[in-house]
Please model this.
Amino acid sequence: MKGPVRNTTRREHDYQVEADMYLSGVYQSAIATKLGISQQQVSYDLKVLQKRWQESALVNIDVAKGKELARCDTVERWAWRSFKRSVRIAEKSIEMSRIAGEVKFAEKRVEREQLIGDPRFLTIVMQCIERRCKILGMDAPVRSELTGKNGGPIQIKAFDYSDAIAELKAADSMQIETSRQYVSDQSPATAI
Model:
């Protein structure tokens, strides 16, 4: 049985309705009934939608990667600028005075020292490089294994819950008995 022929506008509308209902957990048969199309058509439409979603995700991931790379570039550029500003010649003035007899001597001297720069900025540059490599997938895969003590196998100990269960049952029985006693104490006594 062939369903109604859908034009492009109707098909796109149906895609939107199918997507909303599908993502809400509605069965394909219910979607088909609502739209007046066959369940097979709904199945085909959902395959088209899933392909679109995958293509959209790939584009969005590339866009997100591009944004993060641009952000890394900006941070790295500022770190390099700050590092270059921190590389400079520091001048220190030293004034000394001494007295020789009754004559006072004043000596003024300027010391110059080449500063190598603030290493914190280089740390930021390295972090940007590492982040860029991670985003682009340039790092080698890291192997990780779960092991027990000293690299040996993981030891699994079975725990006997029977004692704990017995204690809980006893406490529960005591609480039920206490509740019954409380209820009976609260009941009005009927005296004749």
In short: The chain has a mean pLDDT of 84. The radius of gyration is 39 Å. Residues 174 and 180 are 10 Å apart (CA to CA).
